[in-house]
Design brief:
Number of strands: 5
Order of helices and strands: HEEHEHEE
Number of helices: 3
Number of domains: 1
CATH superfamily: RutC-like
Strand content: 15-25%
CATH topology: 60s Ribosomal Protein L30, Chain: A
Distance between the termini: 16 Å
Radius of gyration: 15 Å
CATH class: Alpha Beta
Length: about 160
Amino acid sequence: MAGAVEAKLAALGLELPGPLQLPSSNRQPFMLVGRTLYLSGHGSALLEDESLKRIGKVPSEVSQEEACRTARGVALKMLTTVKQALGDLDRVAQVVKLTGYVNAEPDFEAPNAVINGASDLFYELYGQTAGRHARSTMGVATLVARQCVEIEGIFLVGGETP
């Protein structure tokens, strides 16, 4: 049975994608330490949604608006990992912090606007109290596989650990 957060996703016309497949066995998509869930960087190159721009420099190859939509897609992929870790998206007591990286041209000054795509989705789903979070954003010279966006996250977990 879907919880409140999954019902909100459905109301937005969104579905959780498949789980993150990391390219190496020396790391994993998440670490649950006590009541803190740490997500590895989720990069746009690993998204399945073909409608999103996954590769390229912002804004010369991927517009700021396209990159923002991609960041929202990355946040959706992160939610799949949260569900994998916790069994239920409603167990998130607080979105604590996001760190977003944008593969940007040197003069691009709006990586924050790109990562708003992710921040806005978490805020829509978890509300003003649990969805508002700390955040860092940065433009970088390159990301693995030329992906345009990568985001990592920290979440506070409520309820029983499965």
